[in-house]
Amino acid sequence: MLKKGLLGQVIQHLCCLPGVGPKTAQRMAFQLLQRNRDNAKALAEILLKALAEIGHCQQCRTLTEQTLCEICADPARELALLCVVESPADVWTVEQATVFKGRYFVLHGHLSPLDGIGPDELGLDALEQILAKGEVKELILATNSTLEGNATAYFIGELAVKHKVQASRLASGVPMGGELEFIDRVTLLHAFKGRRNIE
Amino acid sequence: MICDAVYEQAGFILKQRQYRETSLIIDVFTQDFGRVTLLAKGVRKAKSKSAALLQPFTALAVSYVGCGELKILTHVDVLHAALELNGLALYCGFYISELILCLLHQYDPHPDVFNDYNCCLSTLASATALEIEWALRLFEINLIEKIGYGLQLEYDFMTGLPIDAAKNYAFNIEKGPYEDALGYLSGVTLQVLHAKTLYDAKVLSEAKLLMRRVIDVYLQGRPLKSRQVMNQIIKRTHNV
């Protein structure tokens, strides 16, 4: 039920944000309207502008206001490496955490047979076109380490074989700073299966 | 209303979906209580210990409490190591999960179907393409039988004569096979399906056609999403 008055509506709509309940929304609304009116105006304007202008990068499909995102447009990036991730948020995470110097491809989801999400819904044609060009030499499959994420990685791995591109999957196992005693059994099992020789 | 408190119940996760910020709603197929829907609170947090366990095709021991339709998951542990399903076997795993979701009612216990599901998954994990197909057909026949729609595969229902391996048959889903020179089922296929032994590629393709029609009838027009997705996947990976 929509609350009465403009203030009520602002509070109601702020609740659409993740992690924001009615109480926090109320605080936010009063902060913006009482003490911070300039910032509120700037926020409203930038949100409208972002909504109008931000779309998907033509090449990697991450969020950007340009036709090509900064990463795809950067000539210093290696063409031979392509990292496949599930969401634009994952691109940010990988960018911040690693020294990966290749390019990305965003799936916007994962294969989910029980929800009817297959290759067609994920728009894997675009990925196949990139692979068919022959520039990419290694495909890094950085989908989530869930069953659906693995299924997606496996399927894209098969596409890579079809296009004669080497594919690799992110390792899974013991996290940094993780003490064996506190690690769950499934993760530990993966860690043992994926153990490496010491070089 | 009856409140449940169930401890260490063997079960498999059939389907999971995200709920709010950190929780999951999971459909679990339990051994003694059938299909139940559970709310797993706070499992999608960074430090969650059960996120890695709550995956489909892993034999779990789940404990839950609750009064309404949606119970609360209180504890989960792995019963035995997860099965390694890959490629075709994995997609088939999703398919049998969807059959259970569509054909079994919630809170309707089917320990025998649970055992079949468990066996079928183990077969999928270590089988060739033909063996996988046979495992699926067996699972389908047994499932249909155990939910009360067992197929009559022994006699020609019009004449009452046993099935003749040399003849062709058509199939009435409620009554059984009847002789028809242009029918899509050979007598051999019916005999094999009845005895649940020995098979070859021809038997498998006929059995697939039969079971697909039977299942479609009992789904009452609902499409199987995993089947559609599997078709897309096969089309993409095999057409070069």
TrEMBL record, chain A:
Ranges for domain Toprim: 80-175
CDD domains: TOPRIM_recR (cd01025)
InterPro entries: DNA_Rcmb_RecR, Rcmb_RecR, Rcmb_RecR_Znf, TOPRIM_dom, TOPRIM_RecR
Zinc finger map (C4-type): 57-72
One biological process term in Gene Ontology: DNA repair
Keywords from the UniProt entry: DNA damage, DNA recombination, DNA repair, Metal-binding, Zinc, Zinc-finger
Gene Ontology MF, one: zinc ion binding
The protein's role, per its UniProt record: May play a role in DNA repair. It seems to be involved in an RecBC-independent recombinational process of DNA repair. It may act with RecF and RecO.
NCBIfam families: recR
Protein family according to the UniProt entry: Belongs to the RecR family.
HAMAP family: RecR
Protein name, per record: Recombination protein RecR
The species this protein was found in: Crenothrix polyspora
Lineage: Bacteria, Pseudomonadati, Pseudomonadota, Gammaproteobacteria, Methylococcales
Automatic annotation (TrEMBL), chain B:
InterPro entries recorded: ARFGAP/RecO, DNA_rep/recomb_RecO_N, NA-bd_OB-fold, RecO, RecO_C
Superkingdom per UniProt: Bacteria
Annotated GO CC locations: bacterial nucleoid
GO biological processes: DNA recombination; double-strand break repair
Keywords assigned by UniProt, alphabetized: DNA damage, DNA recombination, DNA repair
Chain segments annotated as transmembrane: none
Domain DNA replication/recombination mediator RecO N-terminal: 7-80
Xref: PANTHER family: DNA REPAIR PROTEIN RECO
HAMAP family, A to Z: RecO
Function (record text): Involved in DNA repair and RecF pathway recombination.
Record-stated family: Belongs to the RecO family.
Protein name in UniProt: DNA repair protein RecO
Gene behind the chain: recO
